[in-house]
Every structure is written in C-alpha cells, then in structure tokens.
Amino acid sequence: MIIHSSTDQLLKSNPFDFSLSNKELFLKSFKENALHHYENHEFTRKLWDKLGFHPDSLHTEQNLENVPGTMVHLYKEHEFFSVPKSEMSLVLTSSGTGGQNLSSF
Amino acid sequence: MKALALSIHRSLGMADPQKYNYLCFTYDPAVANDLGTAFTDELLTNFTGKNEVYYAIQWNENKNDFELNESGVLKTLKRFETSDIPTRILGFPALLFEIIEKNNLHLDLGKDSWLQTGGGWKGKADKEISKEAFRQLIKSRLGIPIEHQRDLFGMVEHGIPYVDCELGNLHIPNFSRVYTRSAKDLSLLPKGEKGLLHFLCSYNFSYPAPSLLTTDYGRVGSCSCGIKGDTLILEGRAGVSKHKGCALKALDLLKV
Fold this sequence. Notes:
- The complex is a heterodimer.
- By secondary structure, chain A is mainly α.
- Chain A contains four helices and three strands.
- Chain A folds into two domains: 67 residues, no CATH class; 35 residues, no CATH class.
- In chain A, 43% of the residues lie in helices and 6% in strands.
- Chain A starts with a helix and ends with a strand.
- By secondary structure, chain B is an alpha/beta fold.
- Chain B has a single domain, classed as Rossmann fold, CATH 3.40.50.
- Chain B has six helices and twelve strands.
- The radius of gyration of chain B is 18 Å and the shape is globular.
- The N and C termini of chain B lie far apart (36 Å).
- The interface between A and B is large, with 58 and 55 residues.
C-alpha cells in the first residue's frame, strides 16, 4: 500500500477551511498526486514534458493555475489509469455517455 | 471518496441522524451499481437515518432496459406525504419538474423535508426555468422549504461534489481548485469571468485526471451564507457536444 501522506491529511481536514496552512496542504497534496501520475502514466508524462510542465515546479498557490488541463473528451475515448487494475477498488461510469467508454477508476 | 462527500455534506448542514423516507429518481443501485449517479444516490441516502427508500428507475426484464416507474412515484409521494417521517427526494431537476407539471401535483411534504438535485437541465433547455423559479415551484407544489433544496454538480471524471448551501450556491471545497479559461486560446481568465471550467483534484491516484479541462462554461463567484471560499456558477455546455450528461439519458426514460 502506497502512503500519500499529504492527501490523507487533506481529506481529513475541514473542506471549507481556507487558512494558509490548509491551502498549502492542498498544494502539497496536488503535487504528490501530479507526481504520481507523471511517474505512472505515460500519456500524462509525455504531454506535460511537451508542454514544459513538471510537478516539481509547483511551489505556490499561483503555480497551480499553470497546470495544463487534459480535455475531458480524451477520457471518454480511452481507458486511462495510473495503477494496476488489480488495485482499483471502485469503477464508476457516467450513465449519460451512451456508446462512449467513460469510466472513472 | 465516501468520507470526502460526507465531510462536504456535513459542513453544509445536510447530514442528519434523523430518519427520512427517500424517493430517488435514479437507477436502482442493486442493478446499476457501476453507474456514477446510482452510486451517488446510494451514498447520499447514507448521510442520514433512513426509513423507506424507493428507487424510481427500475429494470424492466421484458424490455431489457431501465424505465421510470411513474405510477410508483406518484403512489410513493402520496404515501410519504401522510407519513410522520419527513421525505428526502434525490434526482434530476428536469425529470421532477415534468412529473409535477404532467400530473398537476400539489403536495405538502412538510417543513422537515428536503430535495437534493443533480444533473442539470440538459436536453430540456427549452423547458428550463431559473434556479430561483424552480426553488419557488418546489416550495409551492411539494411543500419543501427553499433552504432545504440543494443542487449538486459533479462529474465522474473529476470526483469532487459541488453542493449548494442554503442560499442555493454551489460551494468549492479546499479539495479542489476551479479556474475558467478562454474558449479561444485556453488562457486563464480573471476570477468572476465566464469561461471553460478547469478543475484540479488531488485525491485520485488511479485515474489520471488531476487537471481536467471540461466543455462546460462557468464562473467562480462568492456567497454571503457564511461558508468560506468561492462558489461555482454553471453557465451551460459549450458548443454542440455529442456526449450526454446523466440527466439527459434519464429524460429518455420519461416518455411524455
């Protein structure tokens, strides 16, 4: 079991506490998460490399604004995941995407 | 994910140990347990005590498809109206609006009852009424107080629920960040300006969508309810999109 300490701590925090320390906790959690996907998901790594973004460049709240977005359509056309299927605990599918393969793992 | 949703709903005053009768305008999770919307409803019914739970979209073995049991809904609503236990309705706003209008419903479910909606009006844009008009209609036709009517916006790709406060504004928790971007060049827009919604989420390690650019327009706003942070204002789907939201698919089930 991989430990994601900042994310675990974030999810236990008050969702509407926007103190500086709690906002910084989101930043740390996001960086932890982005690094995980960068290291484990080839498409994300190649895309971010091409766009010149690396999760290590996230130091401030403002830096978060520069994270490149991935278009939602991509997830509807490809099955994407960053962990082995055997480690997934929940698979959810949108009821509205008739004929499209959108799932969240 | 369940703990995250519970903590958001609790912060917005929506978790309650009291028992409720539930009418869920969605898929029976016993059959549709991998659908995001069925998962959400089963999850939401666990934030309070529960008495009876009625799922309105049921599997029809003869048709080999889901269908809305409309007569079952009407009977259930009338039974809940006379029950000592308050009601919570969960479902798509357009579907509920059509059932109220089509059957000329006038019920009083009582001041302790709640309505939790999600999925928007997609596909019924011609019949869409403003959020304020919808809230007034639900108060007058179902007897549910305005402050107990809460909408929820969520996407399975993103996994963060945005939930209304008692004033009817969707609040953004510290579990995500929301930006808006120009539809022309994807440049970041100042807070408050309408653009394509861009979401950041940090908790999902299996699904690589930490930074998701959507085809929905919106704005980041603020609210005077006392809950800290910004709000999410939805402004509709961009362009002509082929993909259907959950609510549009559900409307296909209502043959009117």
